[in-house]
Amino acid sequence: MRLVFLGPPGSGKGTQAKNLAEKLGLEHLSTGDILRAEIERGSEIGIKAKTFMDAGALVPDKLILEMIKDILRKRANGFIFDGFPRTAPQAEGLDELLRGMGIQLNAVLYLSVGDEVLISRLLGRYYCPKCGLDYNLNSRPPKKAGLCDNCGEGLRQRSDDTEEVIRRRLEVYHQQTKAVEDYYRQKGLLIEINGAEPPDSVAAAILEAVA
Ligand code: AP5
Question: Domains in the chain, ordered, with CATH?
Fold first, then answer.
């Protein structure tokens, strides 16, 4: 199965894509995670991407499509894209790559959530840099403020999870990524899911939609 998770920052793409990938034995491909790993490694792609990401802007299509081409070659069988495509040219580029491989997408799951809920979720998001556990002050706070329950390490926030950058990311979503919704709606691939429900209800709705 080949799926795309689409939705604004904080809509739950990462949470739900990871969960579904585990359930269905698919590869979870998050362009955000891949770019953050490149930044951590100090690679050329990472150095180029960091400026855009810290400003809440999109990384240029050319760089993203080159990265995706490489990734797709190794994972044609089953995958879930999370955070890609994000512009109409990226959606067209993906179609071209899939056509060249003789495969196509099964569905695009669009998680809809209002902006104010998204801001509160993202401001509450923390992670442990040592063991990778995720926390959210609204729904899954650590037992001791600021410390990981599992390993005691100090928790961190993503550098783009400040209120100013979150608002910029939302603006960018409405200006540039909304077009991707229309692109897939016209192709009859878009399935809208209410992402404002609790995570388990969202997961159940997704599972029902792709069954
Ligand atoms: P990326 O990492 O993709 O970030 P994003 O799209 O802004 O999305 P997030 O990861 O912030 O949120 P999410 O929707 O995955 O929600 P999550 O499950 O984490 O991209 C970052 C940057 O990289 C971009 O700004 C851009 O610069 C660059 N980039 C990436 N891909 C690109 C591309 N294709 N082209 C160009 N540039 C690209 O949930 C958020 C929080 O809410 C968590 O704490 C979670 O626990 C909580 N939560 C989740 N679901 C629920 C729920 N149902 N109820 C309550 N809380 C919930």
Answer: 2-114+161-210 (3.40.50.300), 125-160 (no CATH)
Give the model confidence (pLDDT) of 79-94 as tens digits. Answer: 999 999 999 999 999 9
Q: Tokens 């689409």: give the residue.
A: 6
Alpha helices in 102-195 (DSSP H): 115-123, 163-172, 178-186
Question: Does pTM top 0.90 for this prediction?
Answer: yes
Q: Residue 132: pLDDT above 70? A: yes
Q: Taking CB atoms and a 6 Å cutoff, what residues make up the pocket around ligand 1?
A: 7, 9-15, 31-32, 35, 52-53, 56-59, 64, 83-84, 86, 90, 121-122, 125, 134, 136, 139, 160, 169, 195, 198-199, 202
DSSP class of residue 111 equals: E
